[in-house]
């Protein structure tokens, strides 16, 4: 896991006691059509279900994929946090084509942002080499 994906976060609610729930925001480190990897200090066990909202922060209007149901398949400890592998449920069986389309759009925008970021960082390195 190198670094968090740019401008993309997951929000979910966890139970805190009997009547209280806490809204948690977590960074994502991987995203594909099958699932994602997120990092948080909240405890989940493999086999737990989680309902996520993925939010791609944009300058004018955020892209939101709300109420994604996922299954925690793996947990890896890193310092005081955990990396969780989350597998998304099959959208086609639930008839949620709009949700699938929103996820596809988030992945497209993410790929463009990562491409721009890598071009910027590699371009600045070659500029430094030319100056030296």
Explain what you see.
This protein is an alpha+beta fold. 30% of the residues lie in helices and 45% in strands. The chain has a six-stranded antiparallel β-barrel. β1 and β2 form a beta hairpin. The longest helix has 35 residues. It starts with 7 loop residues before the first strand and ends with a helix.
- Total DSSP E strands: 6
Structural class: alpha+beta
Q: Low-confidence spans: pLDDT under 50, at least 5 residues? A: 125-132
Number of helices: 2
First-residue to last-residue Cα separation = 32 Å
Listing every helix as H and every strand as E from the N terminus to the C terminus, the arrangement reads EEEEEEHH
Largest sheet: 6 strands, antiparallel, barrel
Shape: globular
Strand coverage percent: 35-45%
Mean pLDDT: 84
Please state how the strands of the largest beta sheet are arranged side by side: 1-2-3-6-5-4
Rg, rounded, reads 17 Å
Task: Record the SSE blueprint.
Blueprint: E1 8-16, E2 20-31, E3 35-40, E4 49-56, E5 63-78, E6 81-88, H1 91-94, H2 97-131
Antiparallel strand pairs: 1-2, 1-4, 2-3, 3-6, 4-5, 5-6
